[in-house]
Design goal:
This protein is α/β, with parallel strands linked by helices. Helix content is 34%, strand content 15%. It binds nicotinamide-adenine-dinucleotide.
């Protein structure tokens, strides 16, 4: 391959960088290199995460650019239409994050059900927490309602069934009929039925006009008293004002949120929510495991190299 200019615009795992560095014929510019800002004029290929936004103006200016590869699923930070018009290939790594995100959704729900973060906080404040005041909720043998039967939803179903022997019910009017043949589950046609029946409601859909606000005041009202809501998908799927009201009134056991309208979540944006002990927030860390960052980073580099080789 003739020498190619590769710009890594966002931080990547060291294994991905090592693979790039060991590949002959690449002139590599890393995120902290002052030459980073020259990517529009010089790059043959770029790799990004969610931080860098690639606009129509960028594609217009980037005359040498052949390929953009992004780690992860969502490509909402890249103007796909402009990429197409400019003849630039855009790739992502859709299924690779699934294990990690599904794992986090269970970890958060189990932490909330057993009050782990709340009790830990109280101990750190010097409080003597006695067991009778630390009663949790068991998630063993409960019904888990999965909204969105894609890559992450399927992984979550397997983990719930395996770890907690959960009964799985799923709602996904868009997925093909055979999508979950390998997972024992019951398909529910009406979202409201899923919400009424579930002890855990877990969101694994993209943010679309059809999914925005799909969990609002009406849906929260339908949830079981001790139900847990998990959103590791996207902010905007849940009406945050309605959720705050439901949590304050203790309508449900609680909610765990790795995806918020404002990310990363701050005290300024979520002061009222953060006063509550029945919610756990994390700043979109679903994919953030050492293993996933290494595997996904290497996959990104391999895609980039294969596109540039053709
Ligand atoms: P996917 O495309 O594999 O699956 C999405 C599923 O949602 C599909 O089966 C689709 O049929 C279904 N769907 C679409 N519209 C629907 C609707 N109106 N009702 C019900 N189902 C509907 O995507 P995925 O990889 O499983 O990702 C799921 C979500 O997780 C996305 O929002 C993604 O952005 C998010 N995500 C979050 C993190 C994180 O760090 N927290 C990481 C990766 C992905």
């Amino acid at each position: 391959m003739a020498s190619k200019n590769i710009f890594v615009l966002d931080p990547y795992h060291k294994d991905a960088i090592a693979l790039l560095q060991s590949t002959p014929g690449l002139d590599l510019v890393l995120p902290d290199d002052p030459r980073r800002s020259q990517w529009r004029a010089e790059a043959d290929g770029i790799i990004v995460r969610s931080e860098t936004h690639i606009t129509a103006a960028d594609f217009e200016a980037a005359s040498r650019l052949k390929v953009v590869v992004k780690q992860g699923v969502g490509v909402d930070n890249i103007d796909l239409q402009a990429a197409k018009s400019a003849g630039v290939a855009v790739h992502n790594t859709p299924a690779l994050n699934s294990e990690a995100v599904a794992e986090l959704s269970l970890a958060l729900a189990l932490s909330l059900s057993r009050r782990v973060t709340d009790i830990d906080r109280r101990i750190r404040k010097g409080e003597r927490v006695i067991r009778s005041q630390a009663l949790g909720l068991s998630l063993f043998h409960k019904t888990v309602g999965i909204i969105g039967m894609g890559n992450i939803g399927r992984e979550a179903a397997k983990k719930w069934a395996g770890a907690c022997q959960s009964t799985i019910i799923g709602y996904d009017p868009v997925a093909p009929q055979d999508v979950w043949q390998d997972i024992p589950h019951r398909r529910v046609k009406d979202l409201k039925d899923l919400i009424r029946e579930s002890d855990v409601v877990t969101l694994h859909v993209p943010l679309l006009p059809s999914t925005r606000g799909m969990i609002g005041a009406t849906e929260l009202e339908l949830m079981k008293d001790n139900a847990i809501l998990i959103n590791t998908a996207r902010g905007g799927l849940v009406d945050e004002k309605a959720l705050l009201g439901a949590l304050k009134q203790r309508r449900i056991w609680g909610a765990v949120l790795d995806a918020m309208e404002t990310e990363p979540p701050t005290l300024d944006a979520y002061s009222e929510l953060l006063e509550l002990d029945n919610v756990i927030l994390t700043p979109h860390i679903g994919a953030s495991t050492i293993e996933n960052q290494s595997n996904s980073g290497i996959a990104v580099v391999k895609i980039l190299l294969s596109v540039l080789a053709n």
